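Work package 3, deliverable 3.1, input record:
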Amino acid sequence: MKPIILDVDTGVDDALAIAYAAQSPELRLLGVTTCFGNVSVEEATRNTLYLLELLGREDVPVIAGEGKPLFRRNLKGDAKHIHGEDGLGGALGAALPKGEPGPGHAAKFMVEQVRSMPGQVTIIAVGTLVNLALAVMMDPEFAKLVGKVLVMGGAVTVPGNVTGQAEANIYRDPEAAEYVFRAGLPITLVGLDVTMKTLLSRERLQEWRSKDSKLAHFLADATDFYIKAYEHKRPDIGGCALHDPLAVGMAIDPSFCRTQPLHVEVDVEGLYSTGRTVAFRRFGPKKPPNMDVCLEVDAERFLEHFMSRVV
Ligand code: BDR
Ligand code: CA
């Protein structure tokens, strides 16, 4: 079993990623850490606790992290228009989890777990990169000791989803992302280049609705809202994108995507392109790669695998 930490801003697709990870025997979920993004860090923590309880995985600790970007401390904004007022498409409503988050900070948890299993822990970051940036700052050896880092974020060859240029997880904290990209971490970037091809259609939700399971109905309701938001913004694609689940999928089976080693930086002060992930792909001498970038995905095989594990 591969030991993983999932860093989330729960979020409907984060919720689907948590369910996928929690129900995949290849992965050992050491903990779920939370950050701001789709919702506030407090809401992300609440949603994560509730979902793990629905999954019967109260054994997995939830540790809260940062509520604000690294430098842009006054930056406001969330994605409730896509994920709902509660972040879970209204499926949560007024319900509250029974449990509480664990003590300490998400970044400290990452450092402790990585130190205790050098070279083994995979971090799957599917929110802003602020917790991961802080972990790297906290421990100068973190980058050497972490096993692998999967980042759901960025758009290297395709347009963004928050602006024409930038993807949400990078845009909401570009300095944290830039810091993480320069840290020498073993990163695989799972960006919109591939996640916009892994689509869940409304028809597939019937498979969950037909089940006698509270969890299945909860995820169907949450995803229904998320699909409606996609239908509004992208009526052409016929479903919602499984961004965060694909990052989990890559931890289970890296052959879901074809990757290319590239040097990628974040535009932190663009006139039009703040938060853009820029790959240096010119002819002639190239900058040494700092990550593997997912460029193609076997979407059908991934989707069937995801559906076989969730719910
Ligand atoms: C990413 O942004 C968040 O809204 C989603 O949960 C996903 O992690 C997609 O751009
Ligand atoms: Ca997310």
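The longest helix spans residues 214-233.
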